[in-house]
Design a protein that fits this description.
Distance between the termini: 53 Å
Protein name: Aminoglycoside (3'') (9) adenylyltransferase
Radius of gyration: 24 Å
Pfam family, one: Polbeta
CATH superfamily of the largest domain: Beta Polymerase, domain 2
Number of strands: 14
InterPro entries: AadA_C (IPR025184), Acyl_CoA_acyltransferase (IPR016181), GNAT_dom (IPR000182), N-acetyltrans/Recomb-assoc (IPR052564), NT_sf (IPR043519), Polbeta (IPR041633)
Helix content: 40-55%
Strand content: 15-25%
CATH architecture of the largest domain: 2-Layer Sandwich
EC number: 2.7.7.47
Structural class: alpha+beta
CATH class of the largest domain: Alpha Beta
Strand order of the largest sheet: 8-9-10-11-12-14-13
Number of helices: 17
Largest sheet: 7 strands, mixed
GO molecular function, one term: aminoglycoside 3''-adenylyltransferase activity
Amino acid sequence: MNYPKEKIEPNPDAQQINECINLVTKVLGDNLLGVYLYGSALVGGLQKYSDIDLFVVTNHATTLSEKNELTKHLLHISGRYMKSAKRPIEMTVVEKGAVNPWHYPPRFDFQYGEWLRDSFEMGEIEPQNYEMPDLALIITQVLLKSQTLYGKKSEKILAPVPYVDFINAMLQDLDRLAADIRDDTRNVLLTLARIWSTLETNKIRSKPDAADWVIVRLPETHKAVMNRAKEICIGKKEECWEDIKESLKPCADLMLQNINELKSSVNLLDPCKRIQLMPPTFIIRLLKKEDIAPCAELFFNTVHHVNKKDYDQAQLDAWAPDAKLFIERFQVMLNRIAWVVEDNGQMVGFGDMTQEGYIDRLYVHKDYQRQGVARLIFSKWLDFAKAQDLKQLTTEASITAKAACEAIGFTLMEKQIVETNGVRFINYKMAYQVNK
């Protein structure tokens, strides 16, 4: 069966992702079952040094010729780590039968990563060992949160990873990790932070969130080290450790000590335990002038991804023909009650309401649907309405948004047909009674 490829709308990393989708569909053909974007792109947002993580599932093992073809092109698509404007690509390919039914340790078929570039450039394509415990971590992340770029949904292809195998995979390389503290400082510190926080809470956090979790648990003498690791990760500081180099190993050793103490007390066979994704920690703030262009881009991408299930392409193109066209139109939000929601510095939602209580726009990033972003913005509007003694809030909801509005407490006033750029749409006049 030929599945449609999911086109990633314009953003700084879109070209690389689309090139990867085109590459694997061309090289693997009918053998390809699914391609999934996961990792930082969907959990916490891509940071300054983040890879683009792609997981590929095939029906049967790839040939050496196919591996060579993938490698040849990925060497050009992927950016050199810390030396290129392009992001590094990490692509892992597995044969479905090697991971479903699940067994441990699992086996992979092919992997591309920038740490392998030198070997690939010397023609060393086949790995010495196909066992990869880390697949337990990757598959768990893909099942918890990923974007299907091609093929079936991940849960239709992959088997869940048992808790015991996830934990064993996470802990299997601790000694080597700690030994790399001088050569790979930031990555070692942030990885230890993720391991410690995951082992204690059974929740996977982004690297910046894991750093925050650890910082409040460290003595004052070690906080500066983890603060530095986080600031470098999110791009606030350049990579520099010379001034605190003597504090690096003691900080890593303390985290390692806590991990080892926890490891000895964890019941790996507890049937009630499972790994979850830590919900994002949202920040809501008033909209600023510099938010207008990102709002226009988020609006465009949301309409073309989220609303496409309820409107045809002609309607979508009339509704949101080009993000740049809306930068001027969105300036009006600066004079309204307008809020922006962020997750680790990434805009994930925005909305504006008039002084009279008319909600004009409310858009949530396609990867943050049903995570409470809209409710968070609405709560701010409701506070304003009560303070101003407004009796009701009104809006014109799309077909897509109607159910979400009803869940908040809006009632239907009128179904209507409106026209935008010569194209007709169905939407709904709705009202919320403030003091009910």
